[in-house]
Structures are given as structure tokens and as C-alpha cells.
Specification:
- The chain is α/β, with parallel strands linked by helices.
- Helix content is 26%, strand content 20%.
- The protein is built from 13 helices and 16 strands.
- Strand 3, helix 6 and strand 4 form a beta-alpha-beta unit.
- Helix 10 runs parallel beside helix 11 and helix 10 packs parallel to helix 12.
- The longest helix has 17 residues.
- It is globular and about 70 Å long.
- The structure holds 2-acetamido-2-deoxy-beta-D-glucopyranose (NAG) (5 copies).
- Belongs to the glycosyl hydrolase 27 family.
- It catalyses: Hydrolysis of terminal, non-reducing alpha-D-galactose residues in alpha-D-galactosides, including galactose oligosaccharides, galactomannans and galactolipids.
- Its EC number is 3.2.1.22.
């Protein structure tokens, strides 16, 4: 297998000019459709099953043209920790904490205000107004504060008559609300799905896309219709990300369920549009260190938005360690932008799981995830992750921050604790494979 010529050997037949032209143009065409197979090493790295493991048939096929979301969005959102208990002080202190903890430097730049920022009624001009008690200085003042720190401000509304906490929604007033958000300097809109009048999402979400565009301000558009109408199939042309599931909660059961639901839509993600399995619960106290580490690893691998959902003003050392793991963040932000996915589930109840995804530079990210309550040995075979069996690779552990071997061939195994995961960066040495 290792000696087989790679498919781009058409270059070798370039004696016939026409054939060469055909060849070059078909290579560049397929490179556009399948940017993940551009290796020109002497020996093939990837098995022929690579494209069925990592189906990217819808990668980049339709995208919102606002130029955003080349990689998944990173930042913070108020809901998971504070719910309705927000005010301008907490938003500003969060911006301060994103800077002082170093999180902002790692890419967490969106400061997103969720539900409850607005008053329960519109004003006489039918405009949304910030709650007088909790945002007395107004949203523009918060935006100015956040911008002065080099961060971006997100806000929340609803594609219905009311938000989930029964503040005014934006349906039928999309243009007016988008213009108001733009005038405040808003950079991001999360657009929810409550009180939606039974109108299909495909009819309710595009008007806000067009309204945001018409403002002339570049605003990230985060669609939150809870995965009800299979948004992966259509929302790429509407928003920069789309929720694929119900709301997450701070439990192992919720996190694992949502990971599996989001996995189903992997082939639809790509630069410009991401599947969104909801905000992170890391640091909120309902899961163990190992479970949060698995949560963060799988979200990173799935190219999910990395939106912190804890109180960043008051994080434990363990929470900081997880959220600031630059090697894991780099997997999430890899420019190739192909969503990693579950490639194998074996053992009792399918608990021994291998999740993997291609990265730029012919590298792979591999997670060994133990979904059961007993430590177990999990193996990733080259067959499962799409490598030629004779390929030698180096294996770097992204939680231990060290190279485990520079010489793995055909498979890699590790003992993984209950509910824990190991996260590896796999770099092949194609020209040094076993003969
Ligand atoms: C609005 O959409 C057009 C084309 O669809 C695009 O070229 C332009 O950059 C968009 N503007 C904003 C502010 O998103
Ligand atoms: C602002 O919200 C935070 C978090 O809920 C709370 O601790 C604080 O007391 C509030 N401050 C004011 C002035 O309401
Ligand atoms: C959390 O999510 C799980 C899985 O969907 C669900 O069974 C559970 O009831 C939820 N818990 C709360 C408190 O909402
Ligand atoms: C900080 O978090 C800890 C839990 O990790 C909690 O017990 C404490 O009350 C929090 N402090 C503040 C000021 O919120
Ligand atoms: C698995 O773990 C449970 C406790 O979590 C323990 O009671 C049981 O003996 C373990 N089973 C095996 C096969 O180790």
C-alpha cells in the first residue's frame, strides 16, 4: 500500500499538452471542492476511505457574504452562568477579566449579552430600549467600553414576537432593530426562536440577515432555532453559525447528548458557517475536571463556537487551564475549517470512542474519549482515522503538552480514565513510511 502512486500522478503524463491542461484544471477544481486532499508528497498519506470518513461535500458550498466566521467565533456569553441576572457592571467587568486573564489574547473577543438586556416594552417610536435599572448608561456606552479594550460586543434578540424571557422580539421589525443595533456599535447578534408564531425558521431568519446587511455594519449573525428545522441544510446561506440542538445544561448527560446530535451535521460546516452545539459550560460546577476537559476538547474538534459560559471574573485554576489551552484552541481555529467527527465507537455501550478531524498541513486531530465510568484502553487505528497503514506519525498530547512518540505506525492506544479524553495532534511523515 505504501508504494502506491498518489492520484495526482497525472502530472507525470504531461507529454500530451491537452491532457496536462485537463489534469491541472481538474486538480484545481477538486482542490476547491476538497481542500483537505492537497498533499503532494512522494507517498500517499491518506487512505482511499478518507473522503467517506471526513465527508466535506458541503464544505463552503454556500456562505453568508459578510466576510466573518473564517474560523469559529470565540468569546463569552452571559446566559449559562448569569441567565437574567445581568447588568452593565457585570458586562464591563467581564470585558476587563477577558483581558486580565489573557483570554482575549487567545481569541475570546466577543462579549455577548444574552436575553434580559431590554425593557419589556418598546418606546413610543417602537424602538427597543435597554432596561433602565440594569443598563442605565445604555448599550452604546457598553459597546464603547468594550471596543476601547479591543473587544467586540454581541447582543440578543428573537425571531418572534417575544424573547424567551418575554422581552420584545424583532419579527416584522428587523430593519428597525438591526439599524438600532448598528447605531450602538453592535458586532454580533444571537437570534433566538421563542414565541415564533408558528412561522417556519426559513421564513423568519433571512429577513434579519438582510436587515443586518443593509446597515452596512459587519455584524456576526448567530442563528439559534435549536436545530428544529435541520438548519445545517439551509442556514449556511443565512447566518455565520446555527444551533443544531436544544439548550445545553451543565451536566454530563446534556453535554454528551449534544455532542452526538451536532456530530450528525459535520459535513455541512466550513469557513463562513459553523454548526453550533451551544455555549460552553466549562467552569460552572456541574461536571468534573475530566468531563469539562472532554467537553472543551470535543467542542474544539467539532469546530464549534468557543463561547465561554462561566463567570470569567472568578474562575478556578482548573477552569483557566482548560479554557486557555492554546494547543486545543489552535485545533478549533485551524484555517482548514473541517469539522472533526466521531469515527469509531466500540466496547460496552459504544463507550470507547475515537473522534478525529483533518487539519491543515496534512495533520490530524484525534480524541480518545471514554464515555463510560471505568478506565479503559482506547485504540485509534490508521484505518479508522483515514491514514495509510504504513504511515509513520508523531503524536503530541495536547493536554500534557508533550510529544509522546515520533514513531507511531498503524495504530495508537492509551488508557483513558472515566469520562476523560486524550487529545492528540498527529503529524505524518509520509516520506518515511514502512516499506
Ligand atoms: C451585504 O451583502 C453583499 C452581497 O450579498 C456583500 O457584498 C456585502 O459585503 C454585505 N455587507 C455587509 C455589511 O455584510
Ligand atoms: C450586577 O449583576 C451582578 C451579577 O448578577 C450582581 O452580582 C450585582 O450585584 C449587580 N449589580 C447591580 C448594581 O445591580
Ligand atoms: C439537562 O439535559 C439533559 C439531557 O437533555 C436532560 O435529561 C435534563 O433534564 C436537563 N436538566 C435540566 C436541569 O434541564
Ligand atoms: C467564586 O466561585 C466560587 C466557586 O468556584 C464561589 O464559591 C464564590 O462564591 C465565587 N465568588 C464570587 C465573588 O462570586
Ligand atoms: C466499574 O466501575 C464501577 C464503579 O464506578 C465498579 O463498581 C466496577 O467494579 C467497575 N467495573 C470494572 C469491570 O472494573
Amino acid at each position: 500500500m505504501a508504494k502506491q502512486k498518489q492520484s495526482s500522478s497525472c502530472f507525470l503524463n504531461s507529454a500530451i499538452l491537452l491532457f496536462t491542461i485537463f489534469c491541472v484544471s481538474s486538480v484545481s477544481f477538486s482542490a476547491r471542492l476538497h481542500p483537505i486532499l492537497q498533499s503532494f508528497h512522494q507517498k500517499p498519506i491518506f487512505r482511499s476511505n478518507f473522503h467517506s470518513i471526513y465527508d466535506t461535500s458541503n464544505y463552503g458550498t454556500f456562505q453568508l457574504s459578510n466576510g466573518l466566521a473564517k474560523t469559529p467565533q470565540m468569546g463569552w456569553n452571559s446566559w449559562n452562568f448569569f441567565a437574567c441576572n445581568i447588568n452593565e457592571t457585570v458586562i464591563k467587568e467581564t470585558a476587563d477579566a477577558l483581558i486580565s486573564t489573557g483570554l482575549a489574547d487567545l481569541g475570546y473577543v466577543y462579549v455577548n449579552i444574552d436575553d434580559c438586556w431590554s425593557s419589556v416594552t418598546r418606546n413610543l417610536k417602537a424602538q427597543l430600549v435597554p432596561d433602565e435599572k440594569t443598563f442605565p448608561s445604555g448599550i452604546k456606552a457598553v459597546a464603547d467600553y468594550v471596543h476601547a479594550k479591543g473587544l467586540k460586543l454581541g447582543i440578543y434578540s428573537d425571531a418572534g414576537a417575544f424573547t424567551c424571557q418575554v422581552r420584545p422580539g424583532s419579527i416584522f421589525l428587523e430593519k428597525e432593530d438591526a439599524a438600532l443595533f448598528a447605531s450602538w456599535g453592535i458586532d454580533y447578534l444571537k437570534y433566538d426562536n421563542c414565541y415564533n408564531l408558528g412561522i417556519p425558521p426559513k421564513d423568519r431568519y433571512p429577513p434579519m440577515r438582510d436587515a443586518l446587511n443593509a446597515t452596512g455594519r459587519t455584524i456576526f449573525y448567530s442563528i439559534c432555532e435549536w436545530g428544529e428545522d435541520d438548519p445545517a441544510l439551509w442556514a449556511g446561506a443565512v447566518g455565520n453559525s446555527w444551533r443544531t440542538t436544544e439548550d445545553i445544561n451543565d451536566t454530563w448527560a446534556s453535554m454528551t447528548k449534544i455532542a452526538d446530535l451536532n456530530d450528525k451535521w459535520a459535513k455541512y460546516a466550513g469557513p463562513g458557517g459553523w454548526n453550533d452545539p451551544d455555549m460552553l459550560e466549562v467552569g460552572n460546577g456541574g461536571m468534573t475536571y475530566q468531563e469539562y476537559r472532554a467537553h472543551f476538547s470535543i467542542w474544539a474538534l467539532m469546530k464549534a463556537p468557543l463561547l465561554i459560559g462561566c463567570d470569567v471574573r472568578n474562575m478556578t485554576a482548573e477552569t483557566i487551564e482548560i479554557l486557555t489551552n492554546k494547543e486545543v484552541i489552535d485545533i478549533n481555529q485551524d484555517p482548514l475549517g473541517v469539522q472533526g467527527r466521531k469515527v469509531s465507537a466500540s466496547g460496552p455501550d459504544g463507550c470507547n470512542q475515537v473522534w478525529a478531524g483533518p487539519l491543515s498541513g496534512d495533520r490530524l486531530a484525534v480524541v480518545l474519549w471514554n464515555r463510560c465510568s471505568n478506565a479503559t484502553t482506547i485504540t485509534a487505528s490508521w484505518d479508522q482515522i483515514g491514514l495509510e497503514s504504513g504511515i509513520r506519525v508523531s503524536v503530541r498530547d495536547l493536554w500534557q503538552h508533550k510529544e509522546l512518540t515520533s514513531d507511531a505506525v498503524s495504530s495508537f492506544s492509551a488508557k483513558v480514565d472515566a469520562h476523560d479524553c486524550h487529545f492528540y495532534l498527529i503529524t505524518p511523515y509520509p516520506d518515511h513510511s514502512v516499506e
